[in-house]
Amino acid sequence: MPLGTNRRLDRANNIADLRRLARRALPRPIFDYIDGGADDEWTLARNSTAFTDYELIPDVLTDVSAIRTATSLFGQPVSAPVMLAPTGLTRMFHPEAELAVARAAAKHGLLYSLSTLGTTRLEDLAAAVGGPKVFQIYIFKDRGLTAEFVARCKAAGFHGLALTVDTPVAGNRERDRVNGLSLPPKLTWKSILSFAAHPSWSLPALRGSRFDFANVSHKVDALAAGPMSLFDYIGGQFDRSLTWRDVEWLAAEWGGPLAVKGLMTAEDAKRAIGCGATGVMVSNHGGRQLDGAPAPIDQIAAVRGALGDGPDVICDGGIRRGSDVIKALALGATACSIGRPYLYGLAAGGEAGVDRALTLLIEELERTLALAGVIDVAKLERRHVRARRNMA
Ligand code: FNR
């Protein structure tokens, strides 16, 4: 770890500080890959700013000497209603990659999800790290590959699956185009200069293992064909003809906790549960897919209203503060899911950086609960949050 990293992490007071550290630590094309969104990045921005449309309404003079944040997700006990969202290509951001993230999550008793497009084999991750784990699955044109994943996840002891449904085609990430981010990165003068300024980005790193889709590379012939853009890769492998019948198929094949990730409406949430899912992740892929989509937080009350008490409703996207989590819970979410907040930490300082991101968010969560006069996340109610613009 570079000298001074721990000191810098300790001085980070919030997720925005970790983002600044990540920006300094990474070559520009890699930072932009994490930080950016689709088209005009309207949805990316809206995901976070929408939280400011809600006010927290505190109860005073309640005894808050013992705060409880424990809950359950995907049928697993977790220490707090915050899960780590799946993110592909994690090794690009730090050589410790998914293992660092999963270890920090396990240390905090939080649920970790591994992406199909991760850079660590699911078996290796399960063997190395305890704690509650979910595998994020895509349905490939080759259904055999998807069925193989289900069998591998069962054998490795994953507790749940999250089926991502908001990527029928790749989103238009213009920052990546401008930066020439392909797999591996195109070596233009601009990109060489930007990578050369970062010691961990030697030429071999640019050419090799930091882009290994460890879980699929044995199957996907196209990858062996040489450099190609991420957009082409995704466009080529995912099945655009997916329908709800495929959700039914996956639910039956898996037979355990399953969340549909990437839906936005009460109607689709009901269909997901009707097809055998046990939960939903209300998400627009962190603003990386459909620009113009609403913020997840604005959809939570309607989705919970449609599903009733049972299923997991996870608010995914835009969470940067513990108070955001409290707002989502008061509106009806079971938990929130975070992507960039822990990736900024990872880029800033590997496992210690992820640990810092989680510590900050959990401390904020506990402090906000105490200030709101609520002793247990399970006791948050609709009356604890008020929409400022008649939105919920
Ligand atoms: C993602 N996300 C994502 N989702 C998914 O289902 N499979 C994946 O492989 C990825 N990969 C990925 C990479 C990067 C760099 C980011 C930032 C995001 C989306 C992710 O799971 C989650 O939905 C968002 O990150 C949530 O928004 P915030 O927390 O980043 O605002």
At the fourth level of CATH, the homologous superfamily is Aldolase class I
Q: Spans with pLDDT under 50 lasting ≥5 residues?
A: none
Bound molecules: ligand FNR
Structural class: alpha/beta
Largest sheet: 8 strands, parallel, barrel
Please give the CATH class: Alpha Beta
**Radius of gyration using CA atoms only:** 20 Å
As laid out across the biggest beta sheet, the strand order is: 4-5-6-7-8-9-10-11
Tell me which oligomeric state these chains represent.
Answer: single chain
Number of domains: 1
N-to-C series of helices and strands: HHHHEEEEHEHEHEHHHHHHEHEHEHEHE
- Measured as a percent range, the helix fraction is 40-55%
CATH fold type: TIM Barrel
Written account of the structure:
The chain is an alpha/beta fold and 392 residues long. It has a single domain (5-387), classed as Alpha-Beta Barrel (TIM Barrel), CATH 3.20.20. It has 17 helices and twelve strands. Helix 16 (322-331) links the parallel strand 10 and strand 11 (335-338). The chain starts with a helix and ends in a 5-residue tail after the last strand. Ligand FNR is lined by residues 33-34, 47, 85-88, 115, 117, 136, 164, 261, 283, 285-286, 288, 316-319, 338-340, 343. The site of ligand FNR has 24 residues, from helix 3 and helix 17. Its cofactor is FMN.
